[in-house]
Structure formats: structure tokens, C-alpha cells
Amino acid sequence: MKKTIIYYFSGTGNTWWIANALQQQLAAQNHQAQSYSIETLTPENVLEQVKDVNHIIFGFPVYGSTAPKFMINFINQFPNATNDQSASIFATQALASGDTAYHIGKMLIQKGYSLKQTMHFRMMNNFHIPKFRFYRPKNDYRVDKLHQKSLPKVKKLALAITNNQEHIIGKNIIDYLLGNFQRSHIDKVIDMISKEFKIDSTHCVNCGKCERICPTQNIKKCGDTYKFGDNCMLCLRCYCQCPKSAILIGEGTKNEIKYPRYKGPEKYFDINVLMKNNR
Predict the structure, then answer these.
(1) Is the separation of the CB atoms in 96 and 134 below 8 Å?
(2) What is any Pfam family matched here (predicted)?
(3) Residues 6+ positions from 63 with CB-CB distance below 8 Å
(4) How far is Cα 274 from Cα 100, in angstroms, rounded to an integer?
(5) Which of 1.10.10.10, 3.30.70.20, 3.10.350.10, 3.10.580.10 is the CATH number of 194-269?
(6) What phi and psi, each to the nearest 5 degrees, are found at residue 12?
(7) What percent of the chain has a predicted confidence (pLDDT) above 90?
(8) pTM of the complete model
(9) Is the pLDDT of residue 278 over 60?
(10) What pLDDT is attached to residue 159?
(11) In the chain, where are the structural domains located?
């Protein structure tokens, strides 16, 4: 039986949903498949897990046609391939993603992995703020509609992995040009927007959730409020998950009708499933 591991990073739940759906489809194809949020693992965990695995899958949300720094760092530290190990990349997106999955896949090729599949999945947008007005996030039946549209692609990816069939997207000049353009701006965008995070003291109840769920530990309690450091990667987890919408990205985001927050891919989605020891 082919052994497969899915490693994923998910800021607000979309990539988590695809990872779970893919694990289920692989299991239906008689794969021994396991799925892990990379936030729950140590380097020692990974070394032990991958030593006898045939195929490794990496999943993440698209950030300006690249992966979040959390996933890039994970791949940089990932062990080199042994015994002809193969890999797949999937990325979740709101709009166009260019060559994102293939771009990150090349990092694995350099580590000796045979890149077999790359795929992008459109999921619900979680990024709608005054300076970057995409379409408004929805927290209703439209989330499920996107899931239903994604499921055939999830099954297609699972079958390609099962049958060891190559399925690479993003390996053309148009995708590369779009991806390269977006990558050339993303660091500046993240730096600019991360400076606009602040606490609305009239709504904050000092529950500590934002500090606890931040994947980069960028939020620290300071007296009766919270301060944001310089290590934000713009995953929007704190912004979306604050129970009182007390985290703002610019004054305009006080208007929750105009700038609603995405609550996750399922009605009862629990952000704690993404974190080590449900911290």
C-alpha cells in the first residue's frame, strides 16, 4: 500500500478543508494517508514521519503567487528525498494564482523529489480590507457551493496520485508572468498592511485568543491591550477569529457590513485544530 502524507498550513481554514477532503479521497483509493497541520509538528516529528513515505503532499493558501513564509520555511528545512520519493503541491486561492503551486514545487525538485502534480483550488475569499477590496467574504451557503465545485478536482488529484499520473499546472509563460509580477510585490504589501493592525479598545475583552492563535507569535499582551510585532505574514487568522471583531486593519474595518470577516469553511469550524496541543 502506498504511504502518503499531507503537510499543510492553513490561516483561516480553507486549506485545512481541502487537505481533509483529499485525505478522504486517498483513503477511498486504498491509500494509507495522513494529514498534518505543520504548526503541530517539530523537525524531529517530520524526520520520523517521512523516512518510509512514498509520496508527500504540501498544501497552502496563495499569497501573491507564492506560499506563506511559514510554509516556505517548512519546505526549506524539509529533508531531501530518499528512495525515489515523489511530491504534489496544492494551493487554495480566491482569485488568480498564476504559477504558485509549480513555483513552490520547484523547491522540492531541488531537494530530489519527483514533482508529479500541482493544482489550485478556488475557495472563499478571506481578504477584503479598505486598501485591497476583493469580493466580500461570505459565511453562508456560498461557502458550501465552492466546496462542492472543488470536490471533483480533489478527486481528480487523488486519482492522479493513486495512478502516479503527472498533472502539472502553472508551467507556462502566462502563468509565470502573472506569478512573477505578483511575487515581486507581495513582501511590500504584507509589510505595508501589517503596520495597520491595531486593537479597538472599545470592543476588546482581553480574552487572549489573538495572542494564542497567531502562528508566528506576533501578538503580545501589553498591559490591558495587545501589541503587534514585525513578524506578521498576513494570514488574517487573528482578524477573522476575534470574537468581538476588535482587531482592525485600518479604521475602515470597523464597518463589519462593508468589511465582513471570514469565519471558516464550516459552520462549527474550530481554529484550534490547526495548532499544536490546541494551544
Answers:
(1) no
(2) Flavodoxin_5
(3) 186, 190, 233, 234
(4) 22
(5) 3.30.70.20
(6) -125, 5
(7) 90
(8) 0.96
(9) no
(10) 96
(11) 3-181, 194-269
CATH number 3.30.420.40 is the correct assignment for the domain at 3-181: no
What are 30-81's pLDDT values in tens digits?
888 999 999 999 999 999 999 989 999 999 999 999 999 999 999 999 999 9
Are the C-beta atoms of residues 273 and 267 closer than 8 Å to each other?
no
Q: Is the pLDDT of residue 276 over 80?
A: no
Q: Over the stretch 221-234, which tens digit does the pLDDT of each residue have?
A: 999 899 999 999 99
Of 47, 41, 54, 107, the residue nearest 84 (C-alpha):
54
Average pLDDT across the chain, whole number: 94
DSSP secondary structure of the chain = --EEEEEE--SSSHHHHHHHHHHHHHHHTT-EEEEEEGGG--HHHHHHHHTT-SEEEEEEE-BTTB--HHHHHHHHTSPPP-SS-EEEEEEEESS--TTHHHHHHHHHHHTT-EEEEEEEEE------BTTB--PPP--SHHHHHHHHHHHHHHHHHHHHHHTT--B--S-SHHHHHHHHHHHHHHHHHHHHHHTTEEE-TTT-----HHHHH-TT--EEEETTEEEE-S------HHHHH-TT--EEESGGGG-TTTS-----SSTT--GGGGSGGG-
User: What is the Cα–Cα distance from 181 to 184, expressed in whole angstroms?
Assistant: 5
* CB 8, CB 275: distance < 8 Å: no
Residue 279 predicted with pLDDT over 50: no
